[in-house]
Design brief:
The chain is an alpha+beta fold. It contains 19 helices and 10 strands. The strands form 2 sheets. Strands 3-2-1-4-5 form a 5-stranded antiparallel β-sheet, sandwiched between helices. Strands 9-8-7-6-10 form a 5-stranded antiparallel β-sheet. β2 and β3 form a beta hairpin. The structure holds fe (ii) ion (FE2) (2 copies). One fe (ii) ion (FE2) binds next to α11 and α17.
């Protein structure tokens, strides 16, 4: 039992292993919270021009910048009485508890469970953000109102995340709801942005950035639910759901490959907009049934260059978003230099581009589209990307993708050795058990629907039940199954 008289930091000094990086983050995390607390307190008492207020804000900015320099991005999250900085729980002694609790309360009264701080948040943004925190919260819908007010400021490096999305780990139903909401909102943003561009209107990047940030947050906190959403493929909405799926797969891949949060934001932005150039292509070619003529194919290939130009035209970037731009321009270039657009000099596509290419290839091949009536089964697509060099995928990125999805990706319909039919709902977290995901059994061996479907973790069968294994994947259409139905 722990000694109640020891503060938690003493307890850690007494024996727990804490890495030097974590210790540093513990310190800067506490400094940051304290600076936030101090700024809020003086802002409550004095007018903005007051020197005490200015000093406190300058201190806050300096501490923030110091943490950002080592971490790349900060996410401050409150879960119950705990405070996490970039998923490290801060050890807080009792004496400081009131201080940290006050910051948590200020955020929570606006429905904010997490605050993401990106490089570039300066004194002006902090001032605007804290002023809004001190404003009266909306009694009905505090978070939505806060975001709306924030949208009228120039704040773009301080990103509030609603409590529900920040605190979903415990309840699977909440997790699925949060994922569903984020998915639907992002599809809506993709639809709006693309239709505005098609009409030749200037598009502001702010909404797109917010959507990407919420996808990144969901991938970081709720990966299984949000990747499950990629199975909700809607034939009529292909262009938009495809963009969102490629964004989710890319961000999940980036996470797997160790990218930091800022890099994930950039990657997600490039991925969400990877086909944005298609809005400048004639609709009759995009929606054409049957194969394209060589001329039409040449025209369609222009979507990479058009996409790059479209990003130049977007409003609201402090400077051109070079890494997302490269992703948009290069996502059809193969690792051997083939594909398109053709380069005069041989070039290797950037890591972002290679990630987007894998995410794009997987989603496009597994989805039913107007000109591709038979989608491939997900496991066949993985094998093809891995084993056929002509596809031009980066083998390492494909390997990471397979280790992320398992060999039977979420959404695969499989036949078990018991002759039951099941849908894969989650990859096994155990790399040794790739072939044993969690499934939902929907038909028994006689072909009778199982109501409600039975969820089984194939790697850990329930006591007394026979161990089940997967014999093969099958085509959901043969059974009239809409895979997405098992994820809503
Ligand atoms: Fe494309
Ligand atoms: Fe695409």
């Amino acid at each position: 039992m722990s000694n109640p008289h020891l503060s938690q930091s003493d307890a850690s000094a007494a024996g727990e292993q804490v890495s030097a990086d974590d210790r540093e983050l513990q310190r800067t995390g506490r400094d940051l919270l304290f600076a936030l607390y101090a700024s809020l307190r003086v802002l409550r008492i004095y007018p903005l021009e007051n020197q005490t207020v200015q000093n406190a804000l300058a201190e806050l900015d300096a501490v923030g910048a110091q943490t950002l320099a080592t971490e790349g991005g900060i996410s401050l999250r409150y879960v119950g009485d705990f405070v996490f900085v970039n998923d490290l729980r801060l050890r807080i002694d009792l004496g400081s508890f009131a201080t940290y609790g006050a910051v948590g309360r200020a955020l929570r009264q606006h429905g904010i469970g997490q605050l993401d701080i990106l490089p570039g948040a300066g004194v002006a943004e902090w001032t605007a953000f804290l002023a809004l925190l001190l404003a009266e919260p909306d009694p009905e819908n505090p978070f939505a109102r806060f975001v709306e007010r924030l949208g009228r400021t120039t704040v773009s490096h301080l990103v509030p995340v609603p409590e529900s999305a920040a605190d979903v780990a415990s309840d699977p139903d909440d997790a699925r709801e949060a994922a569903k909401r984020t998915y639907a909102q992002t599809v809506a943003v993709a639809r709006e942005v693309m239709s505005e561009m098609r009409m030749g209107r200037g598009v502001s990047v702010r909404r797109v950035k917010r959507a990407v940030q919420s996808i990144v947050d969901q991938v970081l906190t709720n990966e299984t639910s949000i990747t499950g959403m990629t199975t909700l493929r809607d034939y009529d909405e292909y262009t938009f759901t495809h963009s969102v799926n490629v964004c989710i797969f890319s961000v999940a891949l980036g996470k797997k490959l160790g990218l930091n949060k800022q890099q994930l934001y950039d990657l997600g932005l490039g991925a969400l907009l990877h086909d944005v150039g298609k809005v400048r292509m004639p609709l009759e070619v995009i929606n054409k049934q049957g194969p394209l003529t060589p001329d039409e194919r040449d025209l369609m290939q222009e979507h990479t260059v058009e996409g790059l130009l479209a990003l130049f035209d977007m409003r609201g970037f402090a400077e051109p978003p070079l890494r997302p731009m490269l992703g948009v321009y290069e996502h059809h270039i193969k690792v051997d230099g083939g594909g398109y657009p053709r380069s005069i000099r041989p070039r290797n596509p950037s890591l972002f581009s290679r990630i987007i290419a894998v995410a794009d290839g997987f989603d496009a091949a597994t989805t039913k589209r107007s000109y591709q009536s038979t989608p491939w089964l997900p496991d066949r697509v993985l094998k093809e990307m891995r084993d056929n060099p002509a596809r031009g995928m980066d083998p390492l990125v494909v390997k990471a993708f397979i280790s992320m999805t398992g060999i039977y990706p979420v959404g695969s319909v499989v036949i078990l050795d018991t002759y039951e039919l099941a849908v894969v709902t989650a990859a096994s977290p155990d790399p040794e058990a790739f072939h044993l995901p969690t499934v939902r059994v929907i038909y028994d061996s006689m072909g009778t629907p199982v109501e409600p479907p039975l969820t089984v973790d194939l790697a850990h069968p329930p006591a007394g039940a026979p161990p089940r294994t997967i014999i093969k994947t099958t085509d959901p259409e043969r059974y009239g199954i809409h895979v997405g139905d098992y994820f809503v």
